[in-house]
From TrEMBL, chains A, B:
This is DNA-binding transcriptional regulator, MocR family, contains an aminotransferase domain. Keywords: Aminotransferase, ATP-binding, DNA-binding, Helicase, Hydrolase, Nucleotide-binding, Transferase. Residues 47-331 form the Aminotransferase class I/classII large domain. CDD domains: AAT_like. The gene is tobA. Pfam families: Aminotran_1_2 (PF00155). GO terms for molecular function: DNA binding; helicase activity; pyridoxal phosphate binding; transaminase activity. It comes from Streptoalloteichus tenebrarius (strain ATCC 17920 / DSM 40477 / JCM 4838 / CBS 697.72 / NBRC 16177 / NCIMB 11028 / NRRL B-12390 / A12253. 1 / ISP 5477).
């Protein structure tokens, strides 16, 4: 058989396309920072700054409408999640609830820190709250982890109704919510629901990142929560890597001040909206009701499809048909797919309209056994 | 009592003085990197680069005379140590041996990862190898952690004789050595002994950093070891923070290529040698035989002193006498000082000759109970 590897449609990584990175402006701001604070950016951060650069925390505070004391900055949001999991798991029990599917790296972090992860089925408007209620009524978890906006991997947004019901459950049963919001500002259609933190600041720890709205390479992520937790994350961080990059944080602060983050979001929204619309249309055509949602933003659409192939067989057939997929089961706790189903994550942000359409059609052919 | 806080001699932090940072050259290289690779430094690192920037690993390989496959780069050497401890502890048992005293943050990392840390007394020429032999003969540790050059906190260098004997023990009893070498290139007097890795590359994992020889703010540290271990550290890193900063790594690569690291080392050596010499003289005068060693490099001299004060009483008396000290017991496993002794770490790199002398004399007065 011919090797088609070089032509495979890569439905794999959630990396922004180069077109949405305003690298010239980022480089210019970096040069300005180097001119203004040459010593500070190449030296250790001052003692007591382990929650992050003061100016960046002030800007993030303004951006999110919260006191800077409620912000902790780290080397990207995955590192924030690692520190937060280390802080929460054990202290509040070992049971962690997530959506199913959920972000695979998050699940792995929870397991690494001793968490016992249970999944709550994800519907087109968010987690199944009846399932969640049953679980929390039996046993209070350390926390419920959710990506309420344009979820990775499913592309689902939690409806406002479910958000209100979820924080109600959190109050009733006394558990914490960790909401991860990297894609929230990348909205192409429809109106945003309130964040969970806006609905219940006392019950919610928020994680976010500048990776999808400014630059992944800067490696700037942050947590928003109660001031005590932020101090404790900062102590864990200091004992792990001393301080996050002073230069990256100074550039990020400047990019918020200067409006570059907002311009960058506008650029991404303008560039990605047509890809989103075309992806939804192509996926609807390919998978019909298997399509989990029409996201309205972010990077992903996804489908649950019926197949009598095993996942390994399906992935191999997909490659033969010209498509490389991430393993869908990796997004589920215990790597257990819903019975008789396969899960397909389809990132559209980095693909041309044509490539996405070709990939979706090829997958539909595999589902229908029109190819082997 | 008057508040003398603002005039205290700070014998506390191992931060390089601003005078040794070649910030203008660093800024220039950073600007060049931004001009040449604007997209790469603001994007996610390419897949498969989780061991670090290729060019930086090639340069570090040249610098250390090892294959780049044996190098893993991370956000500073403490982060390297955290990943390495996570990798080694458990896999090879939970017992960790260190020098006593040792770097406090290293000890805390080992404990956090479930290590049971036992100290081996540090003499003027390195760890007491009779004690070490007794310990390893009874029980093979996961590893022995050592800072063989200008140790933090004691300033001690391990003699060549002891290095050879140590790797002999490691071979005989089948344990790993983790050598941490951030200060090695900052030598002001005398000749360097071989590294432990040079003596036994099969038994030694090396950690080092550009913080003391180029810039702490870059947050670039690295491990050198067998290629398999490097791959496993890279996988742990990817699951924790995805990738280390592309910009910082690109600047570090350029600084090695361009000779800036060597110029920076020369600058540090020229600037710090007189401080070292004056510190050794002042500490010898103040503490006599209590001085642990005349280091010949690095940032620290130290003393073990007899006192019938408790450590808390001593630190308080020192503050009244105008000196702020780190708590010496923090550098010992179980925070247990040798009976009847107190340990004083005296970083000299950031103090004027006059301030160091004043501080050492004030501490001598506290030891002699000439002040209260």
């Amino acid at each position: 058989m011919a090797d088609h590897t070089s032509e495979l449609v890569p439905f794999t990584r959630g990396v922004p396309p180069a077109e949405v990175l305003l690298v010239d402006e980022l480089a210019k701001l970096t040069t300005q920072v180097l001119e203004e604070s040459p010593v500070a950016v190449f030296q250790y951060a001052p003692i007591g700054r382990n929650r992050g650069d003061e100016r960046l925390r002030a800007e993030l505070g303004r951006h999110h409408g919260v006191d800077p004391d409620r912000i902790f900055v780290s080397n990207g949001s995955l590192q924030v999640l690692d520190l937060l999991a280390r802080h929460l798991i054990g202290r509040f029990g070992r049971s962690v609830l997530t959506e199913a599917p959920t972000y695979d790296r998050a699940r792995q972090i929870f397991e690494r820190h001793g968490g016992q992860v249970t999944g709550v089925a994800l519907r087109g408007d968010g987690a199944d709250l009846d399932q969640l209620r049953d679980l929390v009524a039996r046993h209070t978890p350390a926390f419920f982890y959710t990506i309420p906006d344009f979820q990775n991997p499913a592309g689902v947004c939690m409806s406002e109704e479910k958000r209100r019901a979820l924080v109600g459950l959190a109050r009733q049963y006394g558990f914490l919510i960790v909401e991860d919001t990297p894609y929230r500002r990348l909205r192409y259609r429809g109106a945003a629901a309130p964040t969970l933190a806006e609905l219940a600041p006392d019950r919610v720890l928020t994680i976010s990142s500048l990776s999808k709205v400014l630059s992944p390479g800067l490696r700037v992520g942050y947590a928003i929560g109660d001031a005590d937790t932020m101090v404790q994350l900062a102590e864990l961080a200091e004992g792990t890597y001393l301080t996050a990059s002073p230069l990256a944080q100074a550039v990020a602060a400047r990019a918020l001040e200067d409006g570059l983050v907002e311009r960058s979001i506008q650029r991404a929204v303008t560039f990605l909206a047509p890809r989103h619309d075309a992806a939804v249309e192509a996926a609807r055509e390919a998978f019909g009701d298997g399509l989990l949602s029409e996201p309205g933003g972010g990077y992903f659409v996804s489908a649950l499809v019926r197949s009598d192939l095993t996942e390994a067989e399906f992935l191999a057939a997909a490659e033969r048909a010209g498509v490389r997929l991430s393993r869908g089961s990796a997004f589920f706790p215990d790597e257990r797919l819903p019975a008789g189903s396969l899960f397909l994550r389809l990132p559209f942000q980095a693909l041309s309209l044509e490539a996405f359409r070709r990939g979706a059609r090829a997958l539909a052919d595999v589902v229908a056994r029109r190819v082997r």
